Amino acid sequence: MSASRRPILLLLVLAIVFGGVLVATLLFGRPPVQDGATTPQSLGASLFRTRCASCHATTTQAGVGPGLAGLFAAGGPALPPGVDYNGRLPTGDAITEESVAAFIRAGGRGQIGAMPGFRLSDQETAALLAYLKTL
């Protein structure tokens, strides 16, 4: 190879290496795209699966407790035949974020059965409420 071509070849190799590093940095150097696992709703969904799903469905289907679809809709969730809370919680409180949070934490007895109270942090409670509002 002639001496006059070496600088051009060296520049070409450097350009290819630089381009490869640039492409790799753009493709792989970014933080991973979040799969939603850190949103309040996804945290709430995870809490629901581990703390609530053994008694409650995310549909209108009742289990041990009522299905929770439509909990925050006018009239509250669908309840089994013969059970009527007049669009309120079993405590008689209107269905609001605050009253639902209090019921989750304290638990209570209703026409269907008893629900234990759950010790949740404020963040966990807010996340669970955010998820319940999507049902």
Description of the structure:
Helix 2 packs across helix 4. The protein has 4 helices and 2 strands. A hairpin with a 4-residue loop joins strand 1 and strand 2. The model is unreliable at 21-35 (pLDDT under 50). Helices cover 42% and strands 3% of the residues.
In brief, what are we looking at here?
This protein has 135 residues and is mainly alpha-helical. The protein has helices spanning 6-28, 40-52, 97-106, 122-132, and strands at 108-109, 114-115.
The residue-averaged pLDDT reads 83
Kindly provide the radius of gyration, computed on alpha-carbon positions and rounded to a whole number of angstroms.
28 Å
Strand content: under 5%
What is the element string, with H for helices and E for strands? HHHEEH
User: What is the first-to-last residue Cα distance?
Assistant: 72 Å
Number of helices: 4
Helical content class:
40-55%
Low-confidence stretches: 21-35
Q: Judging from the principal axes of the Cα atoms, what is the shape?
A: rod-shaped
Largest sheet: 2 strands, antiparallel
Structural class: mainly alpha
Strand order in the largest sheet: 1-2
Number of strands: 2
Give the helix/strand layout.
Layout: H1 6-28, H2 40-52, H3 97-106, E1 108-109, E2 114-115, H4 122-132
Helix pairs in contact: 2-4
Essential attributes:
135 residues; mainly alpha; two-stranded antiparallel sheet
